[in-house]
Design a protein that fits this description.
The structure holds two protein chains of two kinds. Chain A has twelve helices and two strands, in the order H-H-E-E-H-H-H-H-H-H-H-H-H-H. Chain A is mainly alpha-helical. Chain A has one domain: MetI-like (MetI-like fold, Orthogonal Bundle), CATH 1.10.3720. Chain B has one domain: MetI-like fold (Orthogonal Bundle), CATH 1.10.3720.10. Chain B contains eleven helices and no strands. The chains are: A mainly alpha, B mainly alpha.
């Protein structure tokens, strides 16, 4: 049992080392700086610039958080401060199901509902033509995918605030919202930040749904109605060809390594904050 | 001045309350819209032939047949991974909760690394699984899929079972020890108490693993046939949706919609029954 437990800790290291070993050919062939800031992507000519993919990932993830954070924040505060128990009985299964729906199903929904909606209703106001496979579509789909995670994290954190604090604030004449805003929010700020970072890292790695709605063109998006090509989509889309060209496999493994490192750091930081909060509340 | 202040705070309260209602309703609406879209499209495509026949006429273009290959492939991969995953995860959880002290450093490090592993994207698991397979000399196959999904499912298992085990009353453990039981015998007592919780955790985790596409993409491959050995490639439901959805042919796309509906149904059943067991369990839980 000790062996299994230690093995699992080591697994994180093994993953990192494995990905690094596989991507080392491309890191030695090009400088790290050139790989991350290069804009031209042409595996046949041996040009591997990851900048468009990194920017695409940042756009989609950023948009998803902009959509998801207010909805999650208000839903979570509604559930902790206002909602009657019977409403919670409906909300929790809903969140469970949203969390459980596979990402490919979100992708199908995105292509059937969100993409046509954007190309027919939203895009004509701003540009002459858009196929609908855009940053915006990716952002919306991703936002809904991270809602359940963000809401349940926030719920846990909000409900950890002691009833004494709430009652003190209410007895001073504050409304429930003022209590939520000035007491609960201020008390749980580190926790809120940690939850957001955790959701960002979830959104960063989301693959299939984003791959299905983002358009996958190697460009640097300039508006939310441009298509983009996030890193996970790059890996998933090209795995079939990667063995045929030198350095191509290393390039895709490098993409996976970037994701791994970013997600690892985000997760470590936010989990440590959450652990600390849990400990304080015990 | 005082009146005005009071008024603004009440207005603010009302507006915020409306925003909160709207947010909560958005969550419900999103789910309703997804379920409606998938069901409406899926029901049109679903028939007995769809779930009982193999696709024929060629991958991506063949008009005949159903998605039996993907259903069987998913069941094989997830079934095997669940069994292996549980065999590995349950001892880890017991070690964390019974053998280690409450504030042990090892337990902290281990929980932290499982949380991190849980957060690592499935596409990275896919890439890592691929590296492992190259290292071991396996091609894209059922075995590769099982290895990768097992790696993916272990952190989910450990975290969800650990959550239940942590709430376990320590008195029972102490009572068992005081009767002279060994650690292993105590574990049997604990297992009996925890089994409904473990069942719930298993259902929820399996529901997640069956829908994961990115991890099996590199490692399990895709085929129109049912694999009859571990070395053969295997189709899976999420990939059946993903590959066939982009086909120009109507009948092939219908297979994707049917697969999406079946996948959603499986996940719904797992998730709801998991919650049901949880609720019944918490009613007669020892306090």
């Amino acid at each position: 049992m000790l062996f299994l437990t230690i093995l699992s800790i080591v697994l994180v290291l093994i993953m990192g080392i494995g990905l690094y070993m596989k991507s080392s050919p491309i890191i030695t062939a090009n400088s790290l700086c050139k790989l991350l800031s290069g804009t031209s992507w042409s595996p046949i000519r041996g040009q591997f610039g990851f900048f468009p993919f990194i920017i695409g990932t940042i756009w989609v993830t950023g948009l998803a958080i902009i959509f998801a954070l207010p909805i999650s924040f208000f839903t979570a505060s509604y559930l902790t401060e206002y909602a009657k128990p019977f409403i919670k009985r409906f909300v929790f299964p809903t969140l469970d199901i949203l969390a459980a729906i596979p990402s490919v199903v979100y992708g199908v929904w995105g292509t059937l509902v969100i993409v046509p909606l954007i190309s027919k209703k939203i895009a004509p106001f701003f540009t002459s033509f858009s196929a609908g496979y855009t940053v915006l579509a990716g952002g919306i789909v991703l936002a809904i995918m991270i809602l359940p995670l963000l809401i349940s994290l926030l719920l846990e954190i909000f409900s950890s605030v002691s009833a004494d604090l709430r009652e003190t604030s209410l007895s001073l004449g504050a409304t429930k919202w003022q209590t939520a805003k000035y007491v609960v929010c201020r008390k749980t700020m580190p926790g809120i930040v940690a939850s957001v970072v955790l959701s960002i890292s979830r959104a960063l790695g989301e693959t299939i749904a984003v791959l299905m709605v983002c358009g996958n063109r190697v460009i640097i998006p300039h508006s939310v109605l441009d298509s983009c090509y996030p890193l996970p989509a790059l890996i998933a889309n090209n795995y079939g060809e990667m063995l045929s060209m030198p350095l191509y496999e290393a390039a895709l493994m490098f993409a996976a390594l970037i994701l791994f490192i970013v997600v690892l750091l985000f997760n470590l930081a936010s989990r440590m904050i959450i652990y600390k909060l849990e400990k304080e509340n015990q | 001045m005082k009146m005005k202040l009071k008024k603004t705070k009440n207005y603010e309260e009302i507006i915020i309350k409306l925003i909160m209602y709207a947010s909560t309703i958005t969550v419900f609406l999103a789910l309703a819209c997804i379920i409606y879209t998938i069901t409406a499209q899926g029901l049109k495509a679903l028939s007995w032939g769809m779930i009982s026949k193999l696709p024929s006429g060629g991958f991506y273009i063949g008009k005949e047949g159903g998605i039996l290959n993907a259903i069987v492939g998913s069941v094989y991969i997830v079934g095997a991974s669940t069994i292996i995953g549980l065999i590995i995860s349950i001892p880890i959880v017991f070690y964390l909760n019974i053998y280690l002290r409450k504030n042990s450093k090892l337990a902290y490090a281990s929980r932290l690394s499982f949380d991190v592993l849980f957060g690592i994207p499935s596409i990275v698991y896919g890439a890592f699984g691929f590296i492992l397979m190259v290292f071991l000399g396996i091609r894209a196959s059922l075995l590769g899929g099982i290895i990768t999904i097992t790696l993916l499912i272990i952190p989910i298992f450990v975290r969800s079972i650990d959550e239940i085990a942590r709430e376990f009353p320590h008195d029972i453990i102490d009572a068992s020890y005081s009767l002279g039981a060994t650690k292993f015998e105590t574990m049997k007592v604990v297992i009996r108490q925890l089994s409904p919780g473990i069942a719930t955790a298993t259902l929820l985790s399996v529901g997640r693993a069956i829908g994961d596409a990115a991890a099996v993409m590199f490692t399990a491959g895709y085929t129109d046939q049912i694999p009859y050995s571990l070395a053969q490639p295997a189709a899976t439901l999420p990939l059946a949706v993903f590959f066939q959805l982009s086909s120009p042919i109507e009948e092939v796309r219908a297979r994707a919609y049917a697969a999406a509906l079946i996948l959603t149904l499986i996940v719904l059943i797992f998730s709801l029954s998991g919650r049901l067991i949880m609720n019944n369990f918490s009613n007669n839980k020892l306090k």
